[in-house]
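Hello again, I could really use a second opinion on something today. I owe you a coffee for this, so here goes:
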Amino acid sequence: MKPNNRLLYGGAIAAVLVAGVAGFGIARMTADKPAVTGSANAEQETAPSELKLTPAAITTAGITVETVSAGGLSSEIITQAQVVATPNGQAALTARAAGSISRIYKRLGDPVKAGEALALIESRDAGQIAAERTTAIARARVAQANLTREKSLLDQGVSARVDYEQAQAEAAAAQAEVSRTQSAATAARITSDGHGVIVASPISGRVTASTASLGAFVQPETELFRVSDPKLIQVEAAISASDMVRVAVGDRAIISMPDGRTLEARVRSVTPALDAETRAATAVLDVVGGELQPGLSVRARILPTGASQTSAIVVPDEAVQSIGGRDVVFVRTADGFKAVPVTVGQRSAGRAEITAGLSSGQSIATRSAFLLKAELGKGAGEEE
């Protein structure tokens, strides 16, 4: 082979080798790309799902935590309810005698202790009641002295027994009159000087209504104040005739406040008949802890114990958030919250039925759960 041909042949072989090496490198780079994409997807799938929050931060953010229990939408009775005072939790304070209001010691919203005076009424009737009491006491003393004298005369054989028995009857009648006048004075709350009537509260609480005006003349039994004890309240919930047979004494209930807070309650009683106007029965609920003001409108969820058993859990709609196209709820942990994927079934009246992903007894974020979603998204963005 000629030298020139040898050079050409060697150059061609070198070119083939270079092209082969270059092709292998390109192929290897191309083959590595799917591995990089898979790694990115893995990182995306293992994005952080937990948030660390202190109890103080949770409270400041207005996040409400609720413990869930098993029971589908069909096992709940959702109804509007009214907070009312118990029979011993509210008192109407009236004038016990006619007269003019000379002092007002308490105003609307002020705290009141049992037996504390709220107003003073100057009254001629009070003076008459006090005078009758004084007269009765004086007569009783005279009758008792006469009885003592007659007893002494009887023992000496000077007076007849009939005179002694007559003195006994008069003393008893006089003492009965003293009891009557003292009871009248106590009921009217006559002042010690006998010039006025004290308007006092029989219970502790706060003044929730007041119509008293200084100097105003009032008649007996005129209502001047109303005092309520926020600890002695009950919730009255209207339920339909069909739901009436499902509710039993002791059933659990949850009271939803206008601000999103919830309170535990128990069914105390159910009226045996329907209201003639509303055609509904009334379930009386005792609230476990917490203080509610009478007159407040709330929503009640009654959970009948006799309802059909189901593993589904019902949560507020706002507790379910969407992250990456999946429904999640934020479960309370020791350090904060964790986003847990769930399967949502039917929805109704602002409630969502969770069929999978959540267990009875777990505590989840309900009100303001969207703040946790936003914080979780923020954390994921910072990691990227």
